[in-house]
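Private note to self, pasted from the team thread so I don't lose it. Backbone tokens:
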């Protein structure tokens, strides 16, 4: 679906993409990883037809630069930084839905699943929303269309744990189409993808298939016990939507599979307070039953 041949992009004599050749097939789900300055976002901008470059780049045999309208009609995109759009949210949804022939209600449904009150924000200018709300709107717009290519540039940025869990579930549900997702952390996206491409200095330094991926639908039920009630701990686990079941000393909740390392990292700050941690992974059938409930 995507073919790059000797693609080079230079900014002020600095090669950000350096003679890059790459092929991504239809239905592949690719994690594009690397440190800041590796060239990930520049590559994405080239895929979207925003930059002139040396070499050739084609999506379904079309040039994103020369055939931009036709290419973008097939693409769903979540940028790393939200654009400063002044149009109302409802108008933005109608406009983007029209590009791909999608029912705007479908986009709004995903927005509601992400935790947005669509009725309350429909007339508000997009630029006036909080960072998290902007991210949720952009995710709803991208996932609400029947895009053949989904490009997500750090999509979990600015999302609270509950919204992250919904996002991971939505991406797991999306079976058709090609996906490219960027991240600084492979552990966050490894379970989403079938291939990992690591960039450094504008070149591909690792290109490997992902084996035995953990299901993104995985959920962990957790029970935490602490020696005494603590307000800071309560606030921290409250952000993960844990509930107090024992006078501030016993907390229960759920954690999405890909979030387990980040969750344990948060708990490590309270190692002296914790007296018990019980984490059990739900079976696929339990997860399916919970979604239907």
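Design output:
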């Amino acid at each position: 679906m995507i073919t790059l041949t000797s693609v080079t992009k230079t900014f002020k004599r600095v090669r950000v993409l350096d003679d890059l050749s790459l092929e991504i097939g239809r239905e592949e789900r690719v994690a594009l990883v690397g440190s800041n300055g590796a060239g990930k976002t520049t590559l994405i901008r080239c895929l979207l037809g925003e930059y002139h470059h040396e070499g050739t780049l084609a999506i379904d045999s079309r040039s994103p630069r020369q055939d931009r309208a036709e290419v973008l009609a097939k693409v769903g995109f979540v940028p790393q930084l939200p654009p400063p759009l002044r149009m109302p949210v409802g108008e933005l949804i109608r406009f983007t839905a029209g590009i791909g022939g999608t029912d705007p209600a479908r986009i709004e449904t995903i927005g509601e699943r992400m935790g947005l009150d669509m009725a309350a924000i429909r007339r508000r200018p997009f630029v006036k929303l909080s960072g998290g709300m902007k991210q949720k709107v952009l995710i709803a717009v991208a996932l609400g269309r029947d895009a053949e290519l989904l490009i997500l540039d750090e999509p979990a940025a600015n999302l609270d744990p509950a919204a992250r869990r919904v996002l991971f579930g939505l991406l797991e549900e999306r079976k058709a189409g090609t996906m490219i997702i960027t991240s600084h952390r492979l552990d966050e996206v490894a379970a989403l993808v079938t291939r990992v491409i690591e960039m450094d200095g504008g070149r591909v330094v690792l290109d490997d298939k992902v084996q035995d991926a953990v299901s993104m639908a995985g959920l962990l039920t957790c029970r935490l016990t602490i020696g005494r009630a603590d307000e800071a701990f309560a606030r921290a686990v409250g952000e993960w939507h844990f509930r107090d079941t024992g006078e501030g000393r016993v907390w229960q909740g759920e954690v999405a599979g890909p979030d387990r390392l980040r969750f344990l990292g948060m708990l490590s700050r309270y190692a002296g307070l914790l007296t018990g941690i019980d984490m059990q992974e739900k079976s696929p059938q339990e997860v399916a039953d919970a979604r239907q409930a």
